[in-house]
Amino acid sequence: MITFKFPEEKEYVSHYAKKMNDSRALNILEAGEIGSEDEAEYLSRFFWRMVDKSIEDEEQGRPSLFVESNEFWNEKIMYSISGYLERQGYESIWEKVSDEQ
Fold this sequence. Notes:
Shape: globular
Helix content: over 70%
Strand content: under 5%
Low-confidence stretches: none
Structural class: mainly alpha
Largest sheet: none
Oligomer: single chain
Radius of gyration: 13 Å
Number of helices: 5
Number of strands: 0
Distance between the termini: 26 Å
């Protein structure tokens, strides 16, 4: 299962998945797990799209979902997602996608 250290992490990720109309990411988050390399890559790419969207939100003066900055939550979520993918044996997929950013 994808384990988040803070409950706000899942709320934050779900907020951006909904904001970006990304039903596949929402399905993965609701299931709490991935079942294939394709899903590992999709979750990795979603994370970086979410980061881009959160930066855009800050640049346009939209407030963060929580008191802490979007950067704060993105960093926490990065560790949760990358750690999960590593435990599932998909570290190389995470690294490949991250290196493309």
